[in-house]
Fold this sequence. Notes:
This protein is an all-alpha fold. Helices cover about 70% and strands about 0% of the residues. Helix 1 (about 5-20) packs parallel to helix 3 and helix 2 (about 25-45) packs across helix 3 (about 65-85). The longest helix is centred in the middle third of the chain and has 23 residues, at about 25-45. It is globular.
Amino acid sequence: VGLIAGTLAAWALLTWRLFDDTKTGLIVGVMTAVGGTLIEIFLINAPWWDLYAYTQADWFGVDSWIPWVYFCGAPAVGCVSRLIR
């Protein structure tokens, strides 16, 4: 794990802990990280599209830090959904 991925992993877990801290939030974060990354892998590697590319991709065309970015988005969505209920 590179420095960027390791730092973002710690940041993602801290974000979840500070802003959500629920089991459901953790599960949603993992599902968002996995699902978002898989969708990006599909979009980048689809032979009929040339949408975009990462300059230092190390996982099937995406950077290894991208799942942590998706994970960080899950607590924000959870907080907003609780706010508007």
